[in-house]
Give the backbone structure.
Amino acid sequence: MINKKRHNKQGFFISLEGFEGSGKTTLSKKLYHIMLRNGFNSVLTKEPGGTLAADKIREILLERESEGLGYKAELLLFAASRSENVRVNIQPALECGSIVISDRYLDSTTAYQGYGRGIDMEIIKYLNYFAVGNIIPDITFFLDVDTEIGLYRSTVYSKGKEMRFEDEFIQQKQINGKLFLDRVREAYHQIASQNPDRIQVIDSNRDIDLVLNDIIKILNQRLSRKYCKEIFLES
Ligand code: TYD
């Protein structure tokens, strides 16, 4: 049985979601440094990866040499990487009261492997639960960007070998008449509407500092209660 209750650890868990070029990675890093400057114990992670084993899984998943990897194997590898990252990094940090910022998490699997690849959603839900239990984010920012803008940004700032997904997006494979990235974007909107108390949709077509400001405002409403202090951009 899937228990949908969130973790009751002392820390606070933030995830950032969205497709390539939405600014997730830059924003996660900025947020992490702002948290540290404001005196919050913080941990930054990026998926897939985060431990020695998970980083090896990341290579298999993202490198061009893995072109043609089966969808089932892909799903299992993402789940394996996440389960290790939770066990080694995220859960212990939450237990110590830290703020955890994760660049992608569970919703990526639901969006890309579930809606994107078309894998049965019940299997995705179960596997997500199996991999992380109740370690669900307290808040998730879905950074929404137009697919064209996102794809342009992600290929311009490409990361060399880690281009298997981007290659595929550029080849623009269609399933049921829809392009992969358009399905992923729609998926994120659906996931957000199904989880309104957890997921905040942020317009990321704008300048990154405006996006960051919105995130800090929302976080202040949540964190000032929990930690009895506020986050300031300049401190
Ligand atoms: P990465 O190079 O880390 O890009 P980004 O900066 O966009 O996160 O690549 C991660 C890729 O893996 C990205 O295309 C999304 C995909 N992905 C999944 O398909 N499922 C998942 O569960 C996760 C975490 C990522």
